[in-house]
Write a structure and sequence with these properties.
Blueprint: E1 25-30, H1 49-57, H2 71-78, E2 83-88, E3 93-97, H3 101-108, E4 113-119, E5 136-137, H4 160-164, H5 168-173, E6 182-187, H6 200-204, E7 208-213, H7 227-236, E8 238-239, E9 243-244, E10 251-256, H8 266-280, E11 285-288, H9 313-323, E12 327-331, E13 353-358, E14 382-385, E15 389-392, E16 398-401, H10 404-421, H11 427-437, H12 455-462, H13 465-468, E17 474-478, E18 486-492, E19 496-503, E20 509-517, E21 521-527, E22 536-543, E23 548-555
Helix pairs in contact: 7-10, 8-9, 10-12, 11-12
Length: about 550
């Protein structure tokens, strides 16, 4: 398997349809942007208002890397009858098509050209065997009984366990379901996502912001490979009682950057240009269920030494996106059971949230790629459900599939809800809180990283409960008032027995829970027995070793 598939502003690129047989392509790096007609003082000429606001919110300056490639250099090359295929403002580079070797040598000699590198492309078409290690079972889950779930705001159906495993259902119950957040999905195509019922809510509520195809240069993404559609369903699929994604009310850009029938460095350039576009239109999050190591032209193959966070085009592009304030979530890869074994690019990027795969019991999936990076950093960062994950199927119902391609979007959707709840935080602060909340935070490894995150606990960390009270307990209850059930978040400064009691207004004990908690830990408890209680006022007691805490709580 070659890959674990895991508007247009002036800052974006010129696109032309590239025939499958085209091979004479060159990646040209330019020296500067001198004489640009654009200015950092007028960013609205090449960035959307939302992109500018993201930078301001995270104190990120607008600089020359945000400026489009110098149009005078572009015009000079075009005048040579050379086709400009793509432009990258972050790399200050262009991709050209030029079969004339003499012209290529002339371009190399231009004073504002640093380097010209030939990019090989497949001169034919083959079947997409690269997807073979990602399990896919097209059968009807609707014929089986869905797993039971406690009463919740959303009826997750078969997808409950993958949402609850990372505790994103807690954020959903608090009202954070991705509203106002924008996720760009960079993938291999979104077959029939414009007609499948799992995406009716996305379309009918105008949360599908647009599409771009960076492979062919048009906006047609619904006739291509289905992988992106499956990925998308993990975030925004909405069929109550069957599947509900982890960010069901977020907005989405669908960007095809991967050609499922071939494997070349052009696809990394496609990803780069897709990420630049996502930045320009104001995406908050990028989900990338893609990864690269081997190519049709073996001379372009990456090695494990390239997984150092600073070498491949796509890895550097992912870090550029992170530098612009986008939170990039990337699949770790599906090579855990093969000779490669390790993560692939861009999972090695130091500023992205790399996600491995576990099963429903939290056991690492054998297919999940392992870390560390070549330079010794912990990867993956975290893990989520990636074995028999519930997704929208290709025929209108739901089914299951396996791969880190799915654990990544399950996590990305949860990230959107967490950021919605904490809009003043930076992308790096979110990643740090997610890692702190995870099951292996005190002893991370190179198989599961920091472990399975708890997004409810991450929210507690970001709201400052732990940081404001490092030496004493702190109690939070939400939602309050509640309808059917509520959660308790308790920060414990030491290892101890905690006794939780719920009393009615007459002092009758209704619920009693005893739990041992670790030192310096955030602990979340769901009180689901409250569903049977009548509306009214109740008293919650939390008895720690040194102090009792009391809070009034109201059932609506």
């Amino acid at each position: 398997m070659k890959k674990f598939i895991l508007l247009l502003f002036l800052s974006s690129l010129f696109y032309f349809v590239i025939a499958q047989t085209k091979t004479d392509m060159y990646w040209v790096q330019l020296k500067d942007k001198n004489g640009s007609k654009f200015s950092v003082d007028v960013p609205s000429a090449y960035l959307s208002a939302k992109a500018i606001e993201r930078r301001h919110r995270q104190n990120i300056s607008i600089n020359s890397s945000d400026l489009p490639v110098n149009t005078s250099y572009i015009d000079e090359i075009k005048a040579m009858d050379v086709l400009i295929l793509k432009q990258s403002k972050w790399f200050n580079s262009i991709l050209i098509s030029c079969p004339d070797a003499n012209k290529v040598e002339f371009i190399k000699a231009l004073p504002w050209v640093i380097e010209v590198k030939k990019i090989e492309a497949l001169s034919g078409f083959r079947l997409p065997s690269k997807f073979e290690t990602e399990g896919y079972s097209e059968f009807s889950l609707e014929k089986m009984n869905p797993p039971s779930q406690p009463t919740a705001t959303l009826n997750y159906g078969y997808s409950y366990s993958q949402a609850h495993q990372i505790n994103v259902d807690c954020l959903h119950d608090m009202g954070y379901q991705g509203q106002g957040m924008t996720i760009a999905v960079l993938d291999a195509g979104f077959l029939d996502a414009n007609i499948l019922p799992a995406f009716d809510s996305l379309r009918m509520n105008n949360r599908l912001l647009g599409t771009r195809d960076f492979v062919t240069g048009d906006t047609m993404v619904f006739e291509d490979f289905p992988h992106g559609m499956n990925v998308l369903s993990c975030m925004t699929g909405y069929l109550p009682g069957q599947i509900i994604g982890t960010a069901p009310k977020a907005s989405y850009w669908l960007l095809r950057t991967e050609d499922a029938a071939s494997e070349s460095l052009i696809e990394e350039i496609n990803w780069l240009t897709g990420a630049e576009f996502a930045d320009s239109v104001g995406a908050d999050i990028i989900n990338s269920s893609l990864g690269y190591n081997y190519f049709d032209n073996s001379a372009d193959n990456h090695t494990y030494a390239d997984m150092d966070g600073n070498t491949t085009i796509i890895t550097k592009a992912a870090d550029w996106a992170a530098g612009k304030g986008i939170l990039v979530v990337a699949s770790a890869g599906n090579y855990g059971g093969g000779p490669w074994y390790k993560i692939t690019a861009p999972a090695d990027a130091d500023s992205v949230l790399t996600v491995g795969a576990v099963d429903s019991m939290g056991v690492i999936a054998s297919l999940s790629s392992r870390g560390p990076t070549f330079d010794g950093r912990i990867k993956p960062n975290t893990v989520a459900r990636g074995l028999n994950a519930v997704i929208a199927g290709n025929t209108g119902g739901i089914t299951t599939s396996s791969g880190t391609s799915l654990s990544s979007p399950i996590t990305a959707g949860a990230v959107a809800c967490l950021w919605q709840a904490n809009p003043g935080k930076t992308n790096m602060q979110l990643i740090d809180a997610i890692q702190q909340s995870a099951s292996l935070n005190n002893n991370p490894d190179t198989v599961m990283g920091y472990g399975i995150p708890d997004f409810c606990a991450a929210n507690t960390i970001l709201t400052g409960i732990e940081k404001q009270h490092p030496d004493k307990e702190k109690l939070a209850i939400y939602p309050n008032p509640f309808e059917d059930y509520f959660h308790i978040s308790f920060y414990s400064a030491k290892k101890q027995l905690v006794i939780i009691r719920l009393f009615d207004i007459l002092g009758h004990e209704i619920v009693k829970i005893e739990k041992f908690v670790d030192a310096n830990s955030n602990n979340t408890f769901g009180i689901f027995d409250a569903v049977r209680l009548p509306a009214g006022l109740y008293l919650l007691s939390v008895a720690a070793s040194d102090k009792n805490y009391y809070e009034k709580i109201v059932k609506k």
